[in-house]
Amino acid sequence: MRVLLVEDDRPLAQALASRLAEAGHAVDVFSSIADAEAAWTLAVYDLAIIDVMLEDGDGRALVRTVRAAGLATPTIMLTARDEIGDRVAGLDAGADDYLVKPFATDELLARLRALGRRTGDPAAPEFRIGNLIYTPRSATLIVGDRPVQLTAREHAVLERLLRAGDRITPKRRLGEYLFAFDREWSDNAVETLIHRLRKKLSGAGASVELKALRGLGYLLVEVPK
C-alpha cells in the first residue's frame, strides 16, 4: 500500500517510515500541513497517518480539508494528548482511528491492517482468475491447490493488477504506487518486479499470463490450458 505519513518529529517519522517500508509499504513523509496537502492532491494514498500537532498547524484541519475535497483516504491520527475531547475532535474532523503517543509500532501496523480490512472493497474479498485465487485481507495466493510465496512488493503488484481487471495498468502508475516520492525508482525496478512475479506464477503452473504491452503497461489475463 501507499501510505502518507505527516509527522514533524523527525526521529519518530524516520522510525515509522522504516518499519512501514519493511512491511512492504511505499511511504511519503512530510512534516507540514502545506506539503502534505499538496502531495495528497497529486497522489492516491491507501492510508494516511497524521500527527495532530504539526509545525504549521493542527493536523485535524488537514483532515477536514481533504474530506471536504472528497478524499476518503482511511486516516489514523497520532497525538500526545489522551483527553477524550481531543480524540472526539479528531474523529469528528474525519479521522477513522486515533493512537496516543507513545505507542508500539506493532500496534500501529496492526491498526493499519485492521483499517485496511474495514475500508477495503467488500465486494471483492478475493480475486479469482484462471486457477489463481488471491485473498487481499490475508495476502495469500493459491495457484491450483498450492500456496505461492510472494514478497511484499510482489503482493502489491499482483493486487494492483487484479484490481485493475481488464484495464491496462501503466508502468508509471505502478511505479508511483510502489515507491515513495523521496525514493528514486526506474523503469527497470518495475520491470524486475514484473519479471519475478511472472516467473513465480509460471513456475506454480498458473493459467494466467502477465502481459507487457509496449508503451502502454501491464495486464493480467487468463490463458486456457
UniProtKB/TrEMBL annotation:
Gene3D superfamilies: 3.40.50.2300, 6.10.250.690, Winged helix-like DNA-binding domain superfamily/Winged helix DNA-binding domain. Keywords: DNA-binding, Phosphoprotein. InterPro entries: CheY-like_superfamily, OmpR/PhoB-type_DNA-bd, Sig_transdc_resp-reg_receiver, WalR-like, WH-like_DNA-bd_sf. Residues 124-222 bind DNA. Transmembrane segments: none annotated. It comes from the Bacteria. Residues 124-222 form the OmpR/PhoB-type domain. Residues 2-116 form the Response regulatory domain. This is Response regulator transcription factor. It comes from Paracoccus niistensis.
